[in-house]
Specification:
Low-confidence stretches: 1-47, 75-104, 982-986
Structural class: alpha+beta
Distance between the termini: 27 Å
EC number: 3.2.1.-
Cofactor: Zn(2+)
Strand order of the largest sheet: 28-27-34-35-36-37-46-43-42-39-40
Largest sheet: 11 strands, mixed
Radius of gyration: 30 Å
Number of helices: 19
Membrane topology: Single-pass type II membrane protein
Pathway: Protein modification; protein glycosylation
Bound molecules: zinc ion
Family: Belongs to the glycosyl hydrolase 38 family.
Helix content: 25-40%
Shape: globular
Length: 993
């Protein structure tokens, strides 16, 4: 059963990875013999390469058949909703294809609605989201208790869990934090835990732990192993980092978890038991899903909307069995504890009154230099004050325990980068031990209190209670608010350049790992060890580091953001190196050929040489000296792919043939270098490519002898609207139509789909299977609030008014139209944005929708948030759907009782709106914030530039904006008429779809 499940998950995983890479197909340019290339490749040896390629293709196809058979055998288990958004797009479905024969091909079908005790969307519908002052517990109420509930046989069992929250990058870089603080924390940890076996400590971030471990002696290694074995030290979650859960992709979350778990297994023979997520800004069910599959039994979460916390606390439902949205039988449940109060710091973890709890943070004793904001500072525990101090603290514990079903109580004891000094360890542990001794000795208090690890708490709870006594819950905890109308939806979009870079690296890394594995499986042992393996391992580590909740979220200081980006560029280059080496290993002529593991045999189609580069396209130089170039395409997906590939060439006079010498129909289009100027040095060459699953294939690009296009090469038709300036022509495009007036026009490539544009050049309608649907595209902007008010920053989105302003409404910009047999595109250059729409003549998935490219640059704005909005006549009402980390879809509802910023959600991979007849989906190549502010509308934030800090500790605004290329695909689907109508109740009730 376990094996079957693993296969099902693997199958789903592959589909999603492919969707991610829709835009990331790795294209390799094979240079003719380079002078420094160790392996001499003469032109006549291409025949060998081609036969090798043909054999490889055959092998890959066989491999694909085996994979399909395996997936068929594995079967997606009953009630498991395929994770990809339902679609009749067979190219996209990949491994699910085997099932499509048996499942009805209905793109809107609904499965049985799972029933849970607490469904988060239902809870949102009934919550008032009022914010009354609760007294000392501001966001709660005045907790009362009856002392008689505790007695000799029913003591309050308290576990005080010391912890230190270490961000692998935030105000300082990962390395700076390590050398200045984290190293000391871990050094002191081994010393101070070893002094007293009653002391406990938990650690979460394996990235830091590894750095420290590598510096330690064998004696320290042994001591750490003993502390773990004896239960004094627990590694919680065991991920490389404590990842963001909103915009991170599930494959990246899994990679960072795997990196951490592998490290723990290899070095400590340790498997984590409990998860610990105290700082991610909102929580996704993807994480409990992955943790459960990774063998964990419990999870703790903290940053949840204060109104949700209050409601769950009122009903003693802060502990629950967190299920996936599709789960009908509880097989995905993970037991979860939600912390009840505002923060994970000590003032907010001992009980409801921070003024009291702060007095029990002994790092705030006078000699450490910290104080309590509530004006009452801690006092060291003495014989004279212990009775009064112990009772005061116990009162907080007792009040806190009233929010839970059991008499086992969890009290975290820590904060950011705590326990750095030996004296701090002594202050906390010694004072608490005195309190514990006093409380335990005074039997009439009916309390049993001790230091514990997180699993000590969960074990004690599980020991006495049946998990069936706790409610089931489904859904997520977005969008997070910590107080008032301060919703943390700004970070869904902050630093979009780096969010895009995250996905580029994700795709590259996965592609490289697959090809390296294939090359290794074919006997190229060098790839599994030494330098290449090290490069891939480093790439995984740097990408995993960026999944940290101040990394991909865009909430670190400017210099730390640069550090992350530099690490990712290094990772990208390492990944690319492994990829091109693997291609060389697969294509080498014989086993005897030696390959220089440091050599660059191939250049990639797109590279990033610098941490601010939005991606540099390789230009294929063709001419008399280089009449022929060969291009190798690699498909990292497990199924055959057909797509339109565009290469940049130095001359328009080229032709394309496949590896058998057959001509391939192609289109040459100009490259725009300004609103009304064409490049004479670069041209786009586009043609349809077919690449087998996990396969490689070759296309040959040849320069023509004469500046004349043969019959299978088409020069695009170019029209420029709204200008009377004559364009200077470039070779290949002597006739460019100039239309001084704007006018409406349409483009189409395939009979099923066309797109119409208004006079402004903005999309106006999509025509799908002969029915026209209005889809008006526009750009809008939000500003920030006036002086004296809380303003938007890296975390918070606090718009100046509920509705944004529509911008670029005049019809004055120049509109460029390019049409041809392979693709058609519309390009307009606006202030802050270069906006392009493209349709491809492709039978592959790229032919199914309208592609949108937004090159965004808002560096010349101030306190400005730019969004793209689509208006349609889809009767979506207040409902819309977003993905959860690319793993599944979740229903959203726009609530007028909530402000604009609360109705924004993370879009990691896609979002859609639908009614009875149609569905509009936006697939995104980079995570961003999304909302549906009116029926029929989807709005996607593109970038934000904010001059001020938003008081969450970062201490700066977001002003390091970079030119960013956003990619989207817009798909409009009609509902199939022969599908069984899903009952109206189910279609509005299912929280997943
Ligand atoms: Zn943090």
């Amino acid at each position: 059963m376990k094996t079957r499940k693993t296969f099902a998950i693997l199958g789903a995983g592959l589909i999603l990875a492919c969707c991610v890479m829709t835009y990331l197909m790795m294209d390799l340019t094979f240079f003719p013999p380079g002078q420094d290339a160790k392996l001499s490749v003469h032109n006549n040896e291409w025949l060998h390469f081609e036969s090798r390629l043909a054999k490889l293709e055959k092998d890959f196809n066989k491999h694909h058949e085996v994979m399909s058979a395996l997936q068929e055998a594995a079967k997606v288990k009953q009630n498991f909703v395929p994770i990809v958004r339902s679609s009749d797009n067979r190219e996209q479905l990949g491994p699910i294809e085997a099932h499509s024969e048996k499942l009805p091909k209905c793109n809107f079908s609904i499965n049985r609605i799972p029933e849970v005790d607490i469904q988060m969307l239902d809870l949102y519908r009934i919550l008032d989201f009022d914010n009354p002052d609760g007294g000392v517990w501001k966001q709660g109420w005045n907790i009362k208790y009856n002392e008689e509930q505790w007695h000799r046989n029913r003591k309050l069992n308290v576990f005080v869990v010391p912890h230190s929250h270490n961000d692998p990058g935030w105000l300082n870089t990962y390395e700076k934090y390590y050398t200045s603080q984290t190293r000391n924390i871990l050094n002191n940890m081994v010393t101070k835990l070893a002094e007293d076996s009653r002391r406990k400590f938990i650690w979460a971030e394996v990235s830091f732990f590894k750095l420290w471990w590598d510096e330690q002696s064998k004696a320290t290694h042994d001591l750490v192993r003993r502390l773990i074995h004896d239960g004094q030290l627990e590694i919680v979650s065991g991920g490389w980092v404590m990842p963001d859960e909103s915009v991170s992709h599930w494959t990246a979350q899994l990679t960072q978890l795997t990196e951490g778990h592998q490290w723990l297994k290899y070095n400590l023979d340790y498997v984590p038991n409990s998860g610990w997520a105290i700082d991610p800004f909102g929580l996704s069910p993807t994480m409990p899903y992955l943790l459960k599959e990774a063998g964990l039994n419990n999870l703790l979460i903290q940053r949840v909307h204060y109104s949700v916390k209050k409601r769950l606390a009122k009903e003693k439902n802060l502990e629950f069995r967190w299920r996936q949205l599709w789960d009908n039988d509880g097989s995905t449940e993970l037991f979860t504890h939600m912390m009840p109060f505002y923060s994970y710091d000590i003032p907010h973890t001992c009980g409801p009154d921070p003024k009291v709890c702060c007095q029990f943070d002994f790092y705030r004793l006078p000699n450490f230099g910290l104080t309590c904001p509530w004006k009452v500072n801690p006092r060291a525990i003495t014989k004279a004050n212990i009775a009064e101090r112990a009772i005061l603290l116990l009162d907080q514990y007792r009040k806190k325990s009233q929010l839970f079903k059991t008499n086992v109580l969890l009290v975290p004891l820590g904060d950011d980068f705590r326990y750095t000094h030996v004296t701090e360890w002594d202050a906390q542990y010694n004072n608490y031990q005195k309190l514990f001794d006093y409380l335990n000795q005074n039997q009439q208090l009916n309390v049993q209190i001790q230091f514990g690890t997180l699993s000590d708490y969960f074990d004690a709870l599980r020991d006495k209670h049946n998990l069936a006594d706790f409610p089931t819950l489904s859904g997520d905890f977005f969008t997070y608010s910590d107080r008032d109308d301060h919703y943390w939806s700004g970070y869904y979009t902050s630093r979009p350049f780096h969010k895009r870079l995250d996905r580029v690296l994700l795709g590259s890394l996965r592609a490289s790992e697959i090809l390296t594995t294939i090359a290794w499986a074919k006997g190229n042992d060098q790839l599994a060890e030494g330098n290449i393996a090290l490069r891939l391992s480093n790439a995984r580590m740097w990408h995993s580091l960026f999944q940290h909740h101040d990394g991909v979220t865009g909430t670190a200081r400017d210099n730390v953001v640069i550090d992350y980006a530099q690490k990712m560029i290094q990772a990208l280059n390492n990944s690319a190196h492994a990829l091109q080496q693997s291609v060389m290993h697969l294509l080498k002529l014989s086993q005897e050929s030696t390959i220089d593991l440091e050599a660059h045999y191939f250049s990639l189609d797109e590279t990033r040489s610098h941490h601010t580069s939005p991606g540099e396209k390789h230009v294929l130089i063709l001419g008399d000296e280089n009449p022929v170039r060969k291009v190798i395409l690699y498909n990292p997906c497990p199924r055959q792919r057909r797509k339109v590939q565009t290469l940049i060439v130095s001359t328009p006079f080229v032709k394309v043939t496949d590896h058998t010498g057959q001509p391939v129909r192609s289109q040459i289009s100009p490259v725009w270098v300004g609103p009304a100027a064409l490049s004479a040095a670069r041209y786009e060459l586009s043609f349809l490519v077919v690449v087998p699953g996990f396969g490689l294939t070759t296309y040959i690009i040849q320069a023509l002898h004469k500046p004349v296009f043969p019959s299978d090469v088409y020069a695009a038709n170019v029209t420029v609207f709204n200008t009377d300036i004559p364009l200077s022509t470039v070779p290949g495009f002597p006739h460019i139509q100039i239309q001084p007036l704007t006018q409406e026009f349409s483009i189409f490539q395939r009979a099923e789909l066309s797109a119409s544009f208004g006079k402004s050049g903005f999309l106006k309608a999509l025509r799908v299977e002969n029915i026209t649907f209005p889809v008006h595209l526009e750009f809008v902007k939000y500003g920030t609030r006036g002086s004296g008010k809380d303003k938007s920053g890296a975390y918070l989105f606090l718009p100046n008014k509920p509705d944004p302003d529509v911008i670029f409404t005049d019809n004055k910009h120049i509109v460029h139209l390019v049409t041809g047999p392979i693709l058609s595109k519309v390009f307009i250059e606006l202030p802050y944005i270069r906006h392009t729409c493209i349709l491809y003549n492709s039978p592959g998935s790229d032919g199914f929708g309208l592609h949108i490219q937004n090159e965004v640059d808002i560096t010349e704005t101030q306190n400005y948030e730019l969004a793209m909005r689509l208006n349609t006549d889809i009767m979506s009402g207040d409902q819309f759907f977003t993905d959860l980390n690319g793993l599944g879809m979740i229903r959203r509802q726009r609530f007028p009782k909530l402000p604009t910023q609360a109705n924004y959600y993370p879009m990691a991979a896609n979002a859609y709106i639908e009614d009875k007849h149609k569905r509009l989906t936006v697939i995104t190549a980079q995570p961003l914030g999304v909302a549906s502010m009116a029926s029929g509308q989807i709005e996607i934030m593109q970038d934000r530039r904010l001059l001020q800090d938003d008081n969450r500790g970062l201490g700066q605004g977001v002003t390091d904006n970079l030119v960013t290329n956003h990619l989207f695909m817009l798909m409009l689907e009609k509902k199939r008429l022969n599908c069984p109508a899903s009952s109206s109740s189910s279609s509005t009730a299912h929280p997943a779809a």
